[in-house]
Amino acid sequence: MTWFAAHVVMVVKFKRGPQKRFPVWENIVLVKADTEQQAFAKAEALGNNEANDDDGSFRWDGKPARWEFAGVRKIVECAVISQRPGDGDELTFNELEFDSLTAVEAFARAMPATARYNERFRVLDEPAAVIEGKRKRKRA
Fold first, then answer.
1. I want to staple 4 with a disulfide (CB 3.0 to 4.6 A). Which of 30, 39, 68, 137 is the partner?
2. Which residues, listed in sequence order, are joined to residue 12 by a DSSP beta bridge?
């Protein structure tokens, strides 16, 4: 079995009225699987299980809302040295590109910065996963 970091994308959707902005959380979860395809399926199941409205109590900006599963953005095989993740192991990474060193420095200080997100991960062999009878997009 191999450890994978799954990038699960969740979006906030309002229950009523128009919505101009869509807050998104990219949750990075650790999954153990024999293959990337199995890791992807596990990540999709986790995302679907997280979709909810906290029994009607969830609010965003004071408005009734719900979390919806938007998809699995990528699966990254973890560079784990031993059987279990440990101190110093690389779990995942992102590749970004900035137009200036000033923008890089702002980003590194958690300040607003404009970047290009470069995804260079291979697409999984099969174009769609079938989970619980639903066809889902597969991306890595």
1. 39
2. 67
Residue 48: count of CB within 10 angstroms of its CB: 15
Q: Which long-range contacts (CB under 8 A, 24 or more apart) does 63-68 make?
A: 63/14, 63/15, 63/16, 63/17, 64/14, 64/15, 64/16, 65/12, 65/13, 65/14, 65/15, 66/12, 66/13, 66/15, 67/10, 67/11, 67/12, 68/10, 68/11, 68/12, 68/13
**pLDDT tens-digit profile, the chain (140 residues):** 999 999 999 999 999 999 999 999 999 999 999 999 999 999 999 999 999 999 999 999 999 999 999 999 899 999 888 888 889 888 888 888 999 999 999 999 999 999 988 876 544 544 444 333 333 333 33
* Phi, psi of 59, rounded to the nearest 5 degrees: -130, 145
